[in-house]
Here is the input.
Amino acid sequence: MADRNVLYQEAVQDVEAEIDFVEQTWNELRDRPATRLREDFCGTANTSCEWVRRHPHHIATSVDLDPEVLNWGEAHNVAALTLDQQHRIRLVCGDVRDVHTPGLDVVLAMNFSYYLFMDRIAMLEYFRSVHNQLAEDGILFLDAYGGYEAPMVLEEPRECDGFTYIWEQAEFNPIDSQMQCYIHFEFPDGSRLDRAFSYRWRLWTLPELRECLLDAGFRDAVVYWAGTDEETGEGDGIYSPSEVGDADPGWVCYLVAEA
Ligand SMILES: C[S@@+](CC[C@H](N)C(=O)[O-])C[C@H]1O[C@@H](n2cnc3c(N)ncnc32)[C@H](O)[C@@H]1O
Here is the structure.
């Protein structure tokens, strides 16, 4: 009975933290404010909604291939905005490589969605198309994950408010680095939303991605790595430019590519 998009937003996304990172990093790198953002692989357009809520000058375009998830985002997330905010957001149904949205300040692709491109040719095509749509001083923000547990076949449950979120890495092929992952949800009454989301993607490495970004025309592709909380030994959520990371079992970082 549960709505899988509600569960996904609660369990997976942290749009406030994403936009905090974008705004803080933009302000460190640029002397003017960013206004025009495009959210690629936007799903329910949750991050775009956060962008337009932040400032009356903020404008967002949200792109996804799937009309169903866009309709859900329109009905639940966009509809909850004020009228002024709604006028500053546009949902586009299409392939992120084909949309024409020139002069963007920021392009954002979060939760590793661009890992769906399986080979270098497709990834380069995507990065080149983003580069073409960015303003001269525009910036592409990506997240990335890895670590020695990333290619393992495993199930990782996490307790959320009123349900359990389960991330499953079901298959990994070391020859092409492609993997099959699922998200399941479990409820206190024992019921389950099995394979609520499924992803077939390639586990890309940071050097592969950085090389692609430079080949696509970006001036640089800087990794922002999280610091370590001295008490817990876990990431402290503060990301800064780094050339050396830790050999953690599982890490998440940002890639920041300047046009
Ligand atoms: C992992 S989900 C999106 C997650 C969301 N960005 C987030 O941060 O949680 C991936 C989305 O990408 C969309 N998608 C896959 N390939 C695409 C493409 N080539 N162009 C646009 N959207 C695509 C799917 O329809 C799906 O909604």
Notes: Residues 12-13, 41-43, 63-66, 69, 95-96, 110-111, 113, 116 surround S-adenosylmethionine (CB under 6 Å). DSSP finds seven helices and twelve strands in the chain. Residues 15-29 form the longest helix (15 residues).
